[in-house]
Amino acid sequence: MYKVKLEQFEGPMDLLVYLIEHARMSIYDIRVSEITAQYLDYIAEMKRQDVAVTQEFMVLAAELIELKSRMLLPGSDEPSEALGEEDPRSPLVARILEYKQFKEAASFLAEQQEATEHIHTKPQEDISRYTDDPDELLKSDLEKFAAAFRAFLFRKQRLGEMRRTYERIERQRMSIETRISQIREFFTRRKKKKLMFSEMVEEDPSRFNKVITFMSLLEMLKDRRVKAEQKKRFGDIAVSLTEEQN
């Protein structure tokens, strides 16, 4: 018996990988009939809990059913020592391996973003006027003391503004699934079949938005929702929807 949490999966391939790993199967020797049954049970559970079943989940369900049928053909149930071109599971295995590679890359980028997000730098200040004469503040008149106090209040105010700005940015953090939906709406609003990456981030050119947009495009490429082309190194990326998404 297996248990799943409906909210923990980002897409159909994420669910499929979970089921395979949870059943302790080798990716290179998937028990298609068992995995298909578990996958369909999960889809039924989504519908029972009134969770919207997206088109991607249903497409993969149909592919698994077709693969299960092919595996039931005479001779296909014989154990194979290695997957070859004749093994009907080979394309699915290749997609799973590609998905895991993209997911690991996205996870690494997210970790790097998280690690650098809290690092702030500031130019070095000249404090020699305070260290050259330690008694200088004691000799200052009332006007200089008042000026120093105003400077202190100003810095405290700036620090408070920076803290509020940081908290606002944290609240605006979005998930990859949310950004994918925004990218789809962006194509709809522009009424174009092809858009440049620079167009997608021109409204918010912040580093975080560029990273989350790039990670979302990786996810869409993995699921074959879009196609991407970069004509030169470090050049702009042209992104177009696949025929299924048009």
How is this structure best described in words?
Strand 2 and strand 3 (238-241) form a beta hairpin. The protein has three domains: 6-73 and 86-99, no CATH class; 140-171; 174-241, Arc Repressor Mutant, subunit A (Orthogonal Bundle). It has helices at 12-22, 32-48, 55-71, 90-117, 128-131, 136-139, 142-171, 176-190, 197-200, 207-222; strands at 194-196, 226-229, 238-241. It has 246 residues and is mainly alpha-helical. It has a three-stranded antiparallel beta sheet. Helices cover 59% and strands 4% of the residues.
Shape: elongated
Strand content: under 5%
User: Percent of residues in helical segments?
Assistant: 55-70%
Write down how many β-strands occur, each being a DSSP E stretch of 2 or more residues. 3
How would you spell out the order of helices and strands?
HHHHHHHHEHHEE
Number of helices: 10
Oligomer: single chain
Number of structural units classed as domains = 3
Strand order of the largest sheet: 1-3-2
Question: What is the radius of gyration?
Answer: 27 Å
Largest sheet: 3 strands, antiparallel
Give short descriptive properties of this protein.
246 residues; mainly alpha; Arc Repressor Mutant, subunit A; 3 domains; three-stranded antiparallel beta sheet; 59% helix
Summary of the model, kept short:
This protein is mostly helical and 246 residues long.
Helices and strands in order, then pairings?
Elements: H1 12-22, H2 32-48, H3 55-71, H4 90-117, H5 128-131, H6 136-139, H7 142-171, H8 176-190, E1 194-196, H9 197-200, H10 207-222, E2 226-229, E3 238-241
Antiparallel strand pairs: 1-3, 2-3
Helix pairs in contact: 2-3, 4-10, 8-10
